[in-house]
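Hey, resending since the last one bounced:
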Amino acid sequence: MLLFFALVMSCSALFFAPVGAENVVLAQNCKAVCLCDAKSGQIVYARNETMHLPIASMCKIMTLLLSFEAEESGKIGFEDEVCVSERAAGMGGSQVFLEAGGKYPVKDLIESICIASANDSCVAMAETICGSEELFVKKMNERAEQLGMEDTSFSDCTGLPKEGQYSCARDVAVMLRELLKKDAYFKFSKIWMDEMHHSGGRVTQMANTNKLIRNYQGCDSGKTGYTSEAGFCLAASAARGETRVVSVVIGAPDSKTRFDGVAELFDYAFANFTSKCVLEEKVLQDQKCEVKGGKKREISVIPQRACYLFGSKGESDKIEIEINVKAIKAPVAIGDIVGEAVVFKNGVESDRIKLLANEDSAKNGYFDCIRDLAENWTI
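The structure tokens again:
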């Protein structure tokens, strides 16, 4: 029989509310804007965020997401070689001039998409993962639906103009937030300059199209976009301490305006919002886990990770933490899952953290059983 323990703790998280936020106009020369917390998705500033617009190469955020998910599932490996088709090599727009019939490691193709927005590498990856760009685009739309991107339709994997293709600032933020969950992505997103090597010693120089990687403190990821139809676009993320935000602008009139617009959104976020620790990554002093048939009858419990909640600086929120621990049978090893902590902010669930055993408890031996019988013997 499982035992259930519930512990509810209330505290005031010190967040601050931005002064005059309702009158703030940010990135005003861009058609659509969205600024949100990277973890929770809480939108803190937006304008025309659901307007259907072309987003140019920001479509490649989904191409990258599916590429990293294919690697995680074992479908492809970073060291696998991709043989580039004539169709992929012949893509126009931004490219790294892949050779038809040439073989390139998956990691090099992904890097060129992250840094140089390479259309030829996108198609090569799409064909590798799904067999054709058409099937890959179908997968892009399926994944968008899973993520709740209700105002998005993909027609190609590059963002080159094509009928029926559109998205919105909110949906771009959603897919970038999902991409940020891939630790491997950051191995590529922060690279400023590199080279793509071809056969015969030919080299293509690559420079990161996201200039904020160098010019804005904490910016370590993102994707630019430009077509004459879409204008200048940028989705980027920046972190300071435990606070990470995502900023999206669509339809800026020039490149400088898009970078200035995203930087302005970042400045606003870091000035007015923070992520406060509400559950530390240390032993829960008032909570034990019962171990049935164990040499230790109770063991201490620790959260798998700390919990940080995003909110306005100076604003008071009601934080409740429900601790659910089940009795388990021995043997128990350090790190075994023994329960869960559910975090609520103002009555709404905000996070779930696994609770782990912080001690070992071996299974009782024969003499331990005799001891237990003697201790519980009544006359």
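DSSP finds ten helices and 17 strands in the chain.

Sorry for the duplicate.
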